[in-house]
């Protein structure tokens, strides 16, 4: 079953409308498709699992340079990971998030890092991602931060430290200033 990758802005229209439907089913906005779900400044790239023209599962990879522990690192993260409700539990989501891990490693990024609700830890772990214990990913902006330890949230930070310099830095039990902005407040 083909796994397709496009810059988000170049996803063919017949696939994009299905991706939007899947995203709306998971995170309803009630809005018409804006054409892209992410801030173009984060270079969104879509990974789609497609069977005979039907999108079974989708995710987006976002990219940003971050400052952390005295260094600058190229970080990529997962966003909008979703499988068609009728197709869940068949390994499609797992295949996609593993492919995303391989794409992050192959891209030259220093690390992959993103947050998820705690119950989904096992899903991402099974695909090769690992938890950064005690880490807090700080979304939003420096003036209007939106951290994963926001009251009421129960989130964990998942990562893959790809380069030696990323592995040499301290990430566990640290606040990581991602600050992706106001469109993608937290990834
Ligand atoms: C999470 C999601 C993408 C998984 O897709 P999928 O195609 O069913 O994934 P797989 O078949 O590869 O793996 C399913 C595994 O994830 C687990 N899982 C899925 N959603 C879960 C949840 N909310 N809490 C705990 N475990 C969950 C399943 O129990 C299953 O575990 P098992 O393999 O031990 O039985 C899909 O459930 C989905 O689209 N959910 C709604 C959107 C969402 O929450 N996305 C994640 C945002 S961080």
Write structural notes for this entry.
The relative contact order is 0.16. The protein has one domain: Aminopeptidase. The model has no long low-confidence stretch (mean pLDDT 97). The chain is built from 4 helices and 10 strands. The chain has a 7-stranded mixed sheet. A 3-stranded mixed sheet has the order 8-7-10, with no helix packed on it. The longest helix has 15 residues, at 92-106. It is of the alpha+beta class. Bound molecules: coenzyme A. Coenzyme A binds at residues 26, 57, 81-83, 88-94, 116, 119-120, 123.
What would you say about this model in short?
The protein has 4 helices and 10 strands. The protein is of the alpha+beta class and 187 residues long. The strands form 2 sheets. Strands 1-2-3-4-5-9-6 form a 7-stranded mixed sheet. A 3-stranded mixed sheet has the order 8-7-10, with no helix packed on it.
Order of helices and strands: EHEEEHEHEEEEHE
Q: How are the strands of the largest sheet arranged?
A: 1-2-3-4-5-9-6
Q: What is the CATH class?
A: Alpha Beta
Helical residues, percent? 10-25%
Q: What distance separates the N and C termini?
A: 27 Å
CATH fold name: Aminopeptidase
């Amino acid at each position: 079953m083909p796994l397709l990758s496009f810059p988000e802005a170049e996803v063919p229209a017949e696939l994009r409308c299905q991706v939007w439907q899947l995203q709306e089913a998971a995170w309803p906005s009630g809005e018409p498709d804006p054409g892209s779900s992410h801030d173009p400044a984060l270079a969104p790239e879509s990974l789609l699992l497609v069977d005979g023209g039907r999108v079974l599962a989708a995710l987006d990879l976002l990219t940003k340079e971050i400052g952390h522990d005295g260094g600058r690192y190229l970080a990529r993260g997962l966003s909008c990971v979703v499988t068609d409700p009728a197709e869940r539990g068949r390994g499609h989501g797992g295949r996609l998030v593993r492919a995303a891990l391989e794409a992050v490693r192959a891209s030259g990024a220093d690390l992959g890092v993103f947050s998820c609700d705690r119950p989904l830890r096992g899903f991402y772990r099974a695909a090769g991602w690992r938890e950064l214990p005690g880490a807090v990913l700080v979304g939003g902006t420096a003036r209007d931060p939106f951290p994963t330890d926001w009251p009421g949230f129960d989130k964990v930070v998942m990562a893959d430290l790809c380069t030696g310099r990323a592995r040499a830095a301290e990430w566990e039990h640290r606040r990581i200033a991602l600050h992706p902005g106001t469109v993608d407040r937290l990834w």
